[in-house]
Fold this protein.
Amino acid sequence: MSKAPSTIHPLRPTPANVTIAPHRMGLQFASSTPRYWYDNDPVVSHFLNALSLSFPDGERFFVDSVRFFRDRIDDPARQKDISGFIGQEAMHTLEHSTFNRFLDSQGYADITRRAERTARTLLKGARIRMSSHEMLAATAALEHITAILADGLLRDDKTMQVMAPEVRALWMWHAIEETEHKAVAFDLYQDVDGRDRQRYIMLVVGTLFLAAYTSVYTWKLLRRDGMHRKPLVLAKGLWKLLGRNGLITRTIPDFLEFFDKDFHPWQQENSHLIRRWRAELDTLHDAKAA
Ligand SMILES: [Fe+2]
Ligand SMILES: [Fe+2]
């Protein structure tokens, strides 16, 4: 794995060639969008659907955690990145809410509403119980999860190619921006607190909550389709997630790096993925506009 490049500015650890700015996509999902939009696979499609259901409230939590401490930063470049982070997460909330309403239209409205309510209740509880330092540590930890999932989606062309085009644009765009801003919450946490043990605990707790949440709602969505009675479909989908080089399995080595004492999100220098997929996203957009 490549280490941090020399272009990293001491006050702005994000590489100089990475700009963090929000982009509104205005995505629409038609009734013709396939139900199993990921590789015609019910398990992986519903796993990513379940993740999407957690995003609107999760991302609001991230934004509030960062906003609380932003006045501690004097450096204008870092302030600009924080504004970019807040803008990007706000756009992700909007676009994923549109996607979640598309799931409603496919006959899952009761499940999606319950899932969104559950996320809201859990995060409301977290806001009450946690200090603002703990909230920021949790955000830095959960941003690590989104960053490694994003890297997993962008690193392998085949992963993007097996998605239905309109949904591919959503996940490609989100994964690009998660990569761009992957260090913003982490760097702010280092500035205002920096205790390693606290961020380790938040990664473990956050991962357990996210795993439980996505498992429950993936299962509920699969049950609605009668897929719980199809062991072959379940086994095939689970292999794509948890088997050799599965979508989740491939992130495990990167996941564990967070427990290094001198970890930094940009020690994995993957900004080439941003450039490569931004170009692809522009082509998709131009083709749509033509
Ligand atoms: Fe996001
Ligand atoms: Fe993010």
User: Anything to note?
Assistant: The two ends are 40 Å apart (CA to CA). The CA atoms of residues 96 and 232 lie 30 Å apart. Residues 42-289 form a domain with the Ribonucleotide Reductase, subunit A fold (CATH 1.10.620).
